[in-house]
Amino acid sequence: MLKMISRPAVKLVERYLPDPYIFVLLLTLIAAAAAIAVERQTPLAVMRMWGDGFWNLLTFSMQMLLVLVTGFMLASSPPVKRLLQKIASFANTPGGAILLVTYVSLIASWINWGFGLVVGALFAKELAKLIKVDYRLLVASAYSGFVIWHGGLAGSIPLTIATDGHFTADQIGVIGTGSTIFALFNLAIVVCLFIVMPLVNRMMLPDEKDSVYVDRDQLEDATDEKGPARINRPAERMENSVILAWLVGIPGLIFLLDHFLLRGGGLNLNVVNFMFLFLAIVLHRTPRSLLTSLHEAVKGGAGIVIQFPFYAGIMAIMIQSGLAASMSEWLVSFATETSLPFWTFLSAGIVNLFVPSGGGQWAVQAPVMLPAAEALGADVSRIAMAVAWGDAWTNLLQPFWALPVLAIAGLKAKDIMGFCLVQLFITGAIISVGLVWF
C-alpha cells in the first residue's frame, strides 16, 4: 500500500516542488503578504522587519556550513571510510540498505541533530556504492531519521527549559529532562518511531522498473583517486607532514576530553563541528589530504550560503509582526486540556515552515502556549515537547534542514520530498497519539 501511495506522491513533488531557493522566495512573499493582510502592518514596516533581520542567522549559517564541510572531511578520511564501508557491508539487499540507513540516521539524530544529518547522508552514499538501490529513497530514508532529534539528547527546547535562568523560568520554573526527554510519553514516541520508520521506508521501496539508480562513479570522492603525492619542494613537505597535522590535531582532541570528562560539557553545534574538524585533521594525517577533501566539501555549500539569510528575514517578519503568535493563538483557541498538546503540535508544525529554528520557535510560541496550558490545567512539560515535536516534524517538508543532506548526496529537494511527504503523515499520526494518549 505504501509503495502505491508513495509513487504518486513522488511524481507530484517532482513535478511541482521548486528548487529550495524558489521555495524560500515564495515563503518570503507569503509571510510579507500575510503580515500586511492579517496583522495590518504597512508594506514599509514589513520591508524594514525583513531587511533588519536578514543577517540575523549569520552565525548559524556558518555553523551549518561547517556541519557540512567538517562532516564531509571526517567521513572522507581513510579510517572512517573503512568503518562506513564495514557497516554498509551488513546490508546485502536493497531493502536491507533502506532499513540500515534509517536505523543509523535515527540513532545519530537522537544523539545530536547535526551529527545525524551528516552521518546519515554519508552513510547513504557508502551504501549506494555497494548496493543497487533507489538512490532517492535511500537518501530520503537517511533524512527521515532527523525527525527524532528534538525528542533526543540535543533537543533545544527541553534543554532550554532545563537550564537555570531561561527566559520563561519565572513562569514555569526549571523543568528537568526527566519530565521531557526521558518522560514516558516522549520515550514512547521515540520507540515507536524507531520501530515504524524503518518499516515505512522499506515498504516504499519502488519496483525495479520505477527505481532511480545513481552512477557509482559519481559517488567517488577526489580523495579516492590519488596516491601519495610526489614531494619536490620544502613547502610540499609541510603540506604532507603528519607531524605538523598531529601537533595541532591531537591538542584539539585533548581539549574535547577535557570538555566532556573534566568539565562535564555537553554536545552543541560548536562542539560537534570542533570534534568533526579535529578528528578529520588527525585521521587524514596530512594537511594536503585534508585540503583535498575540503575542496570537495565546499562545492555543496552554496544553498546554505544564499538561502539561510532569506529564512532569517522570514523569521523576523513572522515574529516582529505578531503573525506567528496569531497563528498559534488561533489554533489553540478551541483546545481543551486533553487536546491542547495536539493543537500545540500542529501549530508548531505550521510555524516551523516559516521559522525553522527550535530555539527561535520556542521564543515565539512560549508566550502563547504557556498561558493556554496554565488556563486549561494542561501539563506544561508536555506542551513544551509538543512545540519541540512540531518543530521537528515538518522538517520533513521544509528544505531548510535538508540542504546539507542534499549537498552531500548530490540530489535536489524534489528527488526526496515525495517520500518525505508520506513519512510526514505517518510520523504526524504517531507523535499526535503519543502526545495526547501516553
From TrEMBL:
Keywords: Membrane, Transmembrane, Transmembrane helix
Keyword check for Transmembrane: yes
Domain of life: Bacteria
Signal peptide residue numbers: none
Transmembrane annotation, as ranges: 20-38, 54-75, 95-123, 135-161, 181-200, 242-261, 267-283, 304-324, 330-355, 416-437
Protein name, as recorded: Short-chain fatty acid transporter
Species: Halomonas llamarensis
